Amino acid sequence: xxxxxxRALSLSLSLSLSLSLSLSVLxxxxxxxxCSRDTSVCVCVCVTxxxxxxxxxxxRLIKLWNPHTQLLIKTYKGHSLEVNSAEASRDNSRFVSGxxxxxxxxxxxxxxxxxxxxxxxxxxxxxxxxxxxxxxxxSASYDSTVKCWDLRSAQHEPVQTLPEATDSVPGLxxxxxxxxxxxxxxxxxxxxxxxGKLRADTVGDPVTCVRFSHDNNCIxxxxxxxxxxxxxxxxxxxxxxxxxxxxxxFKVDCGLSYNDAIVAAGSEDGHLHLWDLxxxxxxxxxxxxxxxxxxxxFHPKTHMHLNLASPQxxxxxxxxxxxxxxxxxxxxxxxxxxxxxxxx
Length: 344
Ligand SMILES: *[C@@H]1O[C@H](CO)[C@@H](O)[C@H](O)[C@H]1NC(C)=O
Fold this sequence. Notes:
The protein is mainly beta. The chain has a single domain (3-10, 36-257, 274-285, 299-314), classed as YVTN repeat-like/Quinoprotein amine dehydrogenase (Methylamine Dehydrogenase, Chain H, 7 Propeller). Helices cover 10% and strands 44% of the residues. It has three helices and 28 strands. A four-stranded antiparallel β-sheet has the order 1-28-27-26. Strands 2-3-4-5 form a four-stranded antiparallel β-sheet, with no helix packed on it. A four-stranded antiparallel β-sheet has the order 6-7-8-9, with no helix packed on it. Bound molecules: 2-acetamido-2-deoxy-beta-D-glucopyranose (NAG). 2-acetamido-2-deoxy-beta-D-glucopyranose (NAG) is lined by residues 232, 234-235, 237. It comes from Monosiga brevicollis (Choanoflagellate).
């Protein structure tokens, strides 16, 4: 797609998204673009430096973008079904992807070549993660297992298989030597690989997204009862719950800001919701997409200050409607909305 067409499309899309808004003003704090015509985007990842963004979805392609110019930098082809997850290495030289074709692939960012393809699971791969030095891949699957792959080994077998879940595992996170999983069986499992310990906490409803807090003291989990909950990592006690969004059917993503002050979740009606982590109060809510927000990614380094106008990208969302949205500052979005309303 030509840059011009892309721009024209993104413009008409933004217009249709928020007709009542003064687009020229809003464009400074939000940009929305169409990543993939007629197909959903399941992945959007702010690459570690925050200057790039990876997207992927039903078109089986993984795309690297400059989110500031909305320029497509590179396309990675190789999966034979939709791509459900991706994560870049810390040095941004490689990334890993997981697909419904049951495979996990490792890519070289610069050359666009697939370095390693692993026939990882007997079902779709829901989520993938890389450890800190990009030597271990962890994959979670619809086949209800989680597997660890050592990239330094030439073996085709996983170095570890975690078979405890009794249903699909849509949610996965990694922190040091701990693996966190959320499963459709309604259980959050935290595996301490060094100590060989497992802590399991039952939520009841299917758990679709799990995240370690950045301070590594808490666990955030989204479940299909329409709640995002915060738990103490060590004893499982409930520290907070966040709701108001719609989440009963699809995997919507959740996340914590870099400073752990803000909880974010997508909604099945296309809204992004932000809450204060401590008191659970809703801070922000806006419909950036026309359909389910299936991926959400905070800028890896920028603190999100709701009261300060930050010029940097701070949060990216992606939707089944095929669009990706970069929100530079929710405070600016709020101000623009308030201004537009008072103008009318
Ligand atoms: C869990 O741990 C936290 C922090 O150490 C503590 O404040 C809380 O009382 C504990 N809850 C239970 C049920 O043990």
